[in-house]
């Protein structure tokens, strides 16, 4: 049983993630921006909401880790499509990097990043309509790979609200039109957290035909 902090637990993927992790028997801490969001987790098994401010200091982040005896971290936060590139840099890049530095300060080694498919493929960024977002994701992933943490990077294709299937494909080259249900991204992250073979791997995933455990 682990103490897992999900940063960005109020996001469209994070909310599914904390609920699924709680059902595995882990102690799950839902990192959110405001205590006004706490009530949404009242009915979730083994889930406790905590304030986690990505605009705060590294020291404040490390204190959240140590106060709750966190041993695994998932970063699933994002500034959202309604904000500008400045907030994307502050949250998706600098916030992510600070959370990694805080993990090292707190002595935590296991860190899972929810990134984006194509974060290493500059060829389409400029025409994607999300240029700043992909830059932020790319360099956050680079920092994680170089951090010395036991990382896993999960890069899903375009996200949908379709029902989960429990099946994915891991691909080598992105293609237009790929998508995956948010619930299956959550399923994949849950599996990664419970499988040490996933440490120091990057997975670019989309809807597919392979059982998640078989993929890992």
TrEMBL record:
Which InterPro entries does this chain map to?
Answer: NAD(P)-bd_dom, NAD(P)-bd_dom_sf
Name under which the protein is recorded: SDR family oxidoreductase
Superkingdom, taxonomy of origin? Bacteria
- Tell me which residues make up the NAD(P)-binding domain: 8-195
* Phylogenetic placement of the source organism: Bacteria, Bacillati, Bacillota, Bacilli, Lactobacillales
SUPFAM superfamilies, A to Z: NAD(P)-binding Rossmann-fold domains (SSF51735)
Pfam families tied to this protein: NAD_binding_10 (PF13460)
């Amino acid at each position: 049983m682990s103490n897992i902090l999900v940063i960005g637990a109020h996001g469209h993927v994070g909310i599914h993630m904390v609920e699924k992790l709680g059902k595995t028997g882990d102690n799950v801490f839902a990192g959110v921006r405001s205590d006004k969001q706490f009530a949404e987790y009242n009915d979730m098994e083994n889930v406790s909401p905590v304030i986690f401010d990505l605009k705060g200091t590294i020291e404040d982040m490390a204190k959240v880790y140590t106060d709750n005896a966190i041993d695994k971290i998932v970063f699933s936060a994002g500034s959202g499509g309604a904000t500008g590139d400045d907030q994307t840099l502050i949250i998706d890049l600098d916030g992510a990097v600070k959370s990694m530095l805080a993990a090292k300060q707190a002595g935590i080694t296991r860190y899972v990043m929810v990134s984006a498919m194509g974060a290493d493929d500059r060829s389409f960024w400029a025409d994607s309509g999300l240029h700043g977002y992909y830059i932020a994701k790319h360099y956050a992933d680079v920092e994680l790979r170089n951090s010395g943490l036991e990382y896993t990077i999960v890069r899903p294709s375009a996200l949908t609200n379709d029902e989960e299937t429990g099946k994915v494909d891991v691909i080598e080259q992105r293609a237009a039109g790929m998508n995956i249900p948010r619930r299956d991204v959550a399923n994949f992250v849950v599996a990664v957290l419970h499988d040490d073979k996933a440490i120091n791997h990057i997975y670019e995933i989309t809807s597919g035909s392979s059982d998640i455990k078989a993929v890992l």
